[in-house]
Design goal:
The complex is a heterodimer of chains A (61) and B (373).
Chain A: E1 10-18, E2 24-28, E3 38-41, E4 49-59
Antiparallel strand pairs in A: 1-2, 1-4, 3-4
Chain B: H1 8-11, H2 20-74, H3 82-89, H4 104-124, H5 132-164, H6 168-197, H7 205-214, E1 220-223, E2 226-233, E3 236-243, H8 253-264, E4 268-276, E5 286-290, H9 299-310, E6 315-322, H10 324-328, H11 333-336, H12 339-353, E7 359-364
Classes of the chains: A mainly beta (61), B alpha/beta (373).
Chain lengths: 61, 373
C-alpha cells in the first residue's frame, strides 16, 4: 500500500557525562535512571563524577 | 454456437447497440448504485471504522491491564485494585456553563483542581507504602487509560448511531477523524510504557533544559510539585522554575509564576516548551516567539498572561517542535540533542533584553517525568 506505515522500534539509551573532563558514555537505559542522577566516578579522569545527562530513544534501523 | 435455438455470440455481441441484454448489463448497475450507492458506501466505511474500533478496544483493554498489573506490583502485598481503578476510568468533568463567559477561568481552574486533588488522593489510597514518584506515575497512566477509554466510547457511540439510523452523512466526519483519533490512541498506549519506567518524554524537554540550568543551585518549593531557584548570570539575576522531577508532573506553573513575579518582579519572562509541529517540519526544530508558551486547557496560560500584563512584563517563548506521539512518548534523540542550543538561545534572549542589574524568569514547561533538577 502507498500509505502503509513502517512500525518503528525505539530503544531507550542513557548518556552519562563526567562533570570534570566531560567524557561521555552511552549505555542501555536501566529502570531507576533519571536525567541529572549522579552515577559512578568517572573512569577516564578518575576524579570526576558521572551524571546522567540525557535519556533518549533511538530508532532501530 | 447455437444452443436450444439461442445464439450466444449474437446475444452478447457488444457492437450491436440494439441488443437488449447488453443494454440491461449497463443500466441495472446504474440503478443499483443510484438507489443503494450510499448504503454500499456506508457498508464499506463501516467495516473500516469497525476495524479501528476493535483496535481501540484492544488498546483500552491492554493499557487497563498494564495499569492494574503495575499497581499490583508497586503496592504489594495490597489487594486487587481492579474494582477501584475501573471506577476511576469512568470519571467525568462537567465544565462550567459558558452562556456568560465572564469569570469562567477561575471556575474551570476550581473544577480542574478538584479533579486533580481528588485523583491524587485516590491514587494514594491504593497503597500506603507507595512513593511519591510511583503515585505520580500511576496518576499519569490513569489519565492515559481514561482518555483511551473516552475515545473508544465516543467513536463507538458515533459509529453505532450512524449504523442504527443508516445515516451515511453522520459516519463521514468520523471516517475523516479516525486517523487522528487512532494516532492519539496509539501515542497514549505507547506513553504508558514510558511512564511505567519513568523515562523522560518529548514534552519534558523544557524542564530538562531548565533543570540543567538549576543544577548546583538551592531549590525551593514555590507551588505544588513546582520548584524554583536563583542564579547569577553576567551581572543579571536569573530565576529558574520547573515542575519538581523526576516525578511525572507538570506542577503548577501559573501559580508559581504569579508568586515569583509578585515577590521578585523579574524584567522579562522566558518560557521553554514543546510545541506540536506541522506536517513537514522537522522533529526537534526550534522556534522563537512571544507570549506564554504553555499548553493545557488554558487556565495556567491565562494566569501567566494576567500577571505579566499587570506588571507589564514581556514574555518570550522558545518552542521545540514535535508530533503528538513524540510529545508523550520516550524523548527522541533529535529532541534531547537540541538542549544545548536552546540553553544558549535562552542566555542570548536574557542578554539582549535585560541590562546589567536586571532579572529574568526562565520557566521550563512540561511533564518532568524522568527529569530531575
Amino acid at each position: 500500500m502507498i500509505f502503509s506505515k513502517k512500525k518503528e522500534i525505539i530503544n531507550p539509551y542513557t548518556l552519562e557525562e563526567c562533570d570534570s573532563c566531560h567524557a561521555i558514555s552511552k549505555r542501555k537505559f536501566k529502570e531507576g535512571d533519571y536525567v541529572f542522577k549522579p552515577a559512578d566516578k568517572c573512569g577516564s579522569c578518575g576524579n570526576g563524577q558521572m551524571i546522567i545527562a540525557k535519556i533518549f530513544g533511538e530508532e532501530v534501523k | 454456437m447455437d444452443f436450444l435455438g439461442v445464439n450466444i455470440d449474437k446475444l452478447l455481441n457488444s457492437n450491436d447497440n440494439s441488443n437488449p441484454l447488453m443494454w440491461l448489463v449497463w443500466i441495472i448497475p446504474i440503478f443499483i448504485f443510484m438507489l443503494y450507492g450510499q448504503r454500499i458506501q456506508l457498508h464499506v466505511t463501516s467495516s473500516e471504522i469497525n476495524k479501528s474500533l476493535e483496535k481501540l478496544k484492544i488498546y483500552r483493554d491492554e493499557t487497563r491491564k498494564e495499569l492494574i498489573d503495575y499497581v499490583k506490583n508497586v503496592s504489594k502485598p495490597g489487594g486487587d485494585p481492579s474494582t477501584k481503578l475501573d471506577r476511576y476510568f469512568e470519571y467525568f468533568t462537567i465544565m462550567p456553563a459558558d452562556m456568560d463567559p465572564n469569570g469562567i477561568v477561575p471556575k474551570i481552574r476550581h473544577i480542574m483542581r478538584i479533579r486533580e486533588d481528588f485523583t491524587r488522593e485516590q491514587v494514594k489510597t491504593l497503597s500506603s507504602n507507595m512513593s511519591h514518584l510511583e503515585e505520580s506515575k500511576i496518576t499519569n497512566i490513569l489519565e492515559a487509560v481514561t482518555t483511551i477509554n473516552l475515545l473508544y466510547k465516543i467513536v463507538r457511540h458515533l459509529f453505532l448511531t450512524a449504523k442504527k439510523q443508516n445515516n451515511f452523512p453522520l459516519i463521514l466526519p468520523l471516517q475523516m477523524m479516525m486517523p487522528f483519533i487512532m494516532e492519539e490512541a496509539e501515542a497514549l498506549k505507547t506513553a504508558v510504557s514510558a511512564f511505567k519506567q519513568g523515562q523522560p518524554i518529548g514534552d519534558g524537554i523544557g524542564p530538562m533544559i531548565v533543570g540543567k540550568m538549576m543544577l548546583d543551585t538551592e531549590k525551593k518549593i514555590v507551588a505544588l510539585e513546582t520548584v524554583w531557584s536563583e542564579k547569577d548570570f553576567e551581572g543579571r539575576k536569573i530565576y529558574l522554575m520547573k515542575a519538581e522531577g523526576p516525578a511525572a508532573t507538570v506542577g503548577r506553573p501559573g501559580e508559581a509564576v504569579e508568586k515569583i513575579i509578585e515577590q521578585r518582579k523579574p524584567d522579562i519572562i522566558v518560557m521553554v516548551d514543546a510545541a506540536l509541529k506541522l506536517e513537514g517540519e522537522d522533529t526537534g526544530s526550534i522556534a522563537q516567539g512571544f507570549g506564554a508558551a504553555i499548553g493545557g486547557i488554558g487556565i495556567e496560560r491565562f494566569q501567566i498572561e494576567d500577571v505579566a500584563t499587570k506588571h507589564k512584563t514581556p514574555i518570550y517563548a522558545i518552542v521545540i517542535k514535535q508530533s503528538i506521539k513524540e510529545a508523550i512518548t520516550l524523548m527522541k534523540k533529535e529532541i534531547a540533542d537540541v538542549a544545548e542550543k536552546v540553553t544558549s538561545q535562552i542566555y542570548d534572549i536574557i542578554k539582549e533584553n535585560t541590562k546589567v542589574g536586571q532579572s529574568a524568569l526562565v520557566v521550563g514547561v512540561g511533564n518532568t517525568v524522568g527529569v530531575s533538577q
